[in-house]
Amino acid sequence: MTTEVRVPTLGESVTEATVATWFKKPGDVVAADEMLCELETDKVTVEVPSPAAGTLTEIVASEGTTVGVDALLANITEGATAAAPAPAANDAAPTAAAGKSVDVMVPSLGESVTEATVSSWFKKVGDAVAQDEMLCELETDKVSVEVPSPAAGVLAEIVAPEGSTVDASAKLAVIAAGAAGTVAAPAADMQSASTTAPAAGGKDVEDAPSAKKAMAEAGISRDAVTASGKDGRVMKEDVAKAIASATTAPAAASPQPTAMPRGPVNADDAGREERVKMTRLRQTIARRLKDAQNAAAILTTYNEVDMTETMALRKEYKELFEKKHGVKLGFMSFFTKACCHALKEVPEVNAEIDGTDIVYKNFVHMGIAAGTPQGLVVPVIRDADQMSFAEIEKAIAEKGKRARDGKLSMAEMQGGTFTISNGGVYGSLMSSPILNPPQSGILGMHKIQDRPMVINGEIKIRPMMYLALSYDHRIVDGKGAVTFLVRVKEALEDPRRLLMDL
Fold this sequence. Notes:
Layout: E1 2-6, E2 16-22, E3 29-30, E4 35-40, E5 45-49, E6 54-59, E7 66-68, E8 72-78, E9 101-105, E10 115-121, E11 128-129, E12 134-139, E13 144-148, E14 153-158, E15 165-167, E16 171-177, H1 187-201, H2 209-218, H3 236-253, H4 267-270, H5 280-295, E17 298-306, H6 308-325, H7 332-345, E18 352-354, E19 357-359, E20 366-368, E21 370-372, E22 375-377, E23 380-381, H8 389-404, E24 418-422, E25 441-445, E26 449-455, E27 458-472, H9 478-493, H10 496-500
Keywords: Acyltransferase, Lipoyl, Transferase, Tricarboxylic acid cycle
Protein name: Dihydrolipoyllysine-residue succinyltransferase component of 2-oxoglutarate dehydrogenase complex
Domain Lipoyl-binding: 2-77, 101-176
């Protein structure tokens, strides 16, 4: 029976790829899930596994060919009786049973994420593992990803130890499928072999066609490029990194503003300090916040809102709301609705700058900042302007829980057009939030505090909250920012305005 090998899903907004390298040729015997070829898109490199065991009878798309999603790459005739391919040099460690070796690969990390750091291994070499049992945890600059075992057996080799950085198509480990005993070779020897093997064969490996073209156009030699592809193969993104490095090198020689170095610390104090490496998430938060300050003209305008009517409405209907919708009625849905209402009137707060263009969004993808043990993340509620109070509350509760558990996917944190940050849950009375690029506005909520207010000539105690809108002054003028905040204030002080679209 003939089985077709087709182009897999390449990711959101990616419609075509280039066949970079074929690892097999017609007539070769292949095992199920063995890597046949490597595709290269403008974002990631994708390895294509064999859908069945058999013989590679025909290659339809040769190296250098551009193919679309689901295009036919090759044909395999199933039922070949030859033995599965012999293990590579770094897979040569013996196992207690003659089971098939299964590679543990980096799972999909999401759009625009090209690398991750191995933060923890839950198993060690020689441990028995069940299928789908968690082997290790990867940490990207946005989320943590747990990697399950693709098969039951024994962990024969750890290719990427803790602390190592791996790309989106890298191999993490090898499972001896079906093995019941302990692997004989020590882990250190196997990791050493895996480290040195690619270098030994790198000179005989054919670089990706797109990489060759890029090197020729840029006029740089292969020796100036650090290869990241399989067996030391140079990929297109490697050339781009080399070009960027060469461009920035002269600039790096000149004095640059850097973080102020630590002063001298006496021995007694040093002995009581603890030094912990910043996580990738924390490093990315730090970089993005500083980039936002450097790139945007951030200005903050303030106002205060009397929460009396919103609190009364919530108190009156919260039991009925929870009984009908199965979720509690909080303040975030009121603020989300109020912001969506205000963004219609002041659309530049919901826009972004792209070069010399302003991109206005005719929709609201609301980012709701959430604090987690790993750091601040911003899950996005898509089309919040089209949702009911109940739908908003359910979405906030579900994404908040996934954020705290570290289960948010990349797609759930991308594409936001405006952000709400609630520092009030931690007791903050006033703050100036920083923009979440490329967005042009972020609303800061704060603690509700009883304060004396003059109402119709009389002093009354009212539950007041300070509001802060940080905005990009390059696109949003002061009038628009103040108008936006006033509309939010009006909607919260008289929630009936939301129903009347006033």
